[in-house]
Amino acid sequence: MAGILLHLPNLITISIILIFLAATTPSIGADHHHEFEGKPINRKLIGLKKEKLSHFRFYWHDILSGNNPTAVQVVPPASNTSATAFGLINMIDDPLTLAPNLTSKMVGRAQGFYASASQQDLGLLMVMNFAFSEGKYNGSTLTVLGRNSVFTPVREMPVIGGSGLFRFARGYVQAKTHTVDLTTGDACIEYNVYWLIVRLATIEENLLTLSKAPKGLHSFNSTFIKRIEQGRVAN
User: Which residues form the signal peptide (predicted)?
Assistant: First the structure.
């Protein structure tokens, strides 16, 4: 006991130093936590409503022959003896039509590339945007990225996103060979596209959301609502 009392001033000094260090030394875990963290967003604040499921069907024309091919080889196969043309890359700007006939109504183009990515079977890596040009979808795109096992009757690939009316889109496509010319390599493929998008709120719905905001924001919301209404009238 006496020994402890003799050392008590030193213990107090050490304790004070440790407390000081604990208070002034930054916490690595806390810094890391605040450095980069995703935060949830209220869907209503950016006008997002419920999801909507929709379906498209169109025909994809991959033309290798003639004076104006829509698919052009940009990288040759790694070996001329490869049974699957492994390593080949074709850049595409393929028309999309409503019917199998190339002269039928065109609704857009498939732009991107496909590459032979398998040494065992004919499996293509597909990277393409469906760039639509018809009706309200003009200027909007859907993006497809996946594996196309060419000899499988129905091939499924994911829709990973979109732009314009397809913002926040996700879904999948099913590709089925309609016709293929074994001499020229030209092919017509039926595509069924299933996609989910988040419906955007209308101006009226956004105004209703703002009007129900907390009272502390009433003054700001009133001004903001007036500006929206003025813009709507002006347009």
Answer: 1-29
Task: Grade residue 227 by pLDDT with cuts at 50, 70 and 90.
Answer: low
pLDDT of residue 45: 62
Tens digit of each residue's pLDDT (9 = 90 or more) over 21-39:
455 555 545 444 556 666 7
Tokens 């299933």 belong to 194
DSSP 94-143: EEEESSSSTTS-EEEEEEEEEEE--SSS-EEEEEEEEEE-SGGGTT-EEE
Q: What does the buried/exposed string (b/e) look like for 6-34 if buried means 16 or more CB atoms within 10 Å of the residue's CB?
A: eeeeeeeeeeeeeeeeeeeeeeeeeeeee
Overall residue count recorded for the chain in this entry: 235
d(CA 188, CA 57): 13
Determine contact, residues 70/62, Cβ cutoff 8 Å. Answer: yes
pLDDT digits (tens, 9 = 90+) for 70-106: 999 999 999 999 999 999 999 999 999 999 999 999 9
Cβ neighbour number for residue 129 with a 10 Å cutoff: 18
Do residues 48 and 169 make contact, with C-beta atoms less than 8 angstroms apart? no
CB atoms within 10 A of CB 1: 5
The mean pLDDT of 139-158, rounded to a whole number, is 98
Question: What are the CB-based long-range contacts (under 8 Å, 24+) for 77-86?
Answer: 77/116, 82/116, 82/119, 84/116, 84/118, 84/119, 84/120, 84/121, 84/122, 84/123, 85/116, 85/122, 86/116, 86/117, 86/118, 86/119
Contact 144, 159 (CB under 8 A): yes
